[in-house]
Amino acid sequence: MRIGNTEVRFLGGPLGCLGMILFSVLASVVLTILLNVLL
């Protein structure tokens, strides 16, 4: 991913980017379940 003249690399390139997306989706699902259990 390029921002201006600098190249921004995520952890391990495309695989790391995909991993971060998967992690954020999993985290939001887990948080939702926890909130539903607590409330």
UniProtKB/TrEMBL annotation:
Membrane spanning residue stretches: 12-38
Source domain of life: Bacteria
Keyword vocabulary terms for this entry: Membrane, Transmembrane, Transmembrane helix
Keyword Transmembrane found: yes
Record-given protein name: DUF2905 domain-containing protein
Source organism: Paractinoplanes deccanensis
Source organism phylogeny: Bacteria, Bacillati, Actinomycetota, Actinomycetes, Micromonosporales
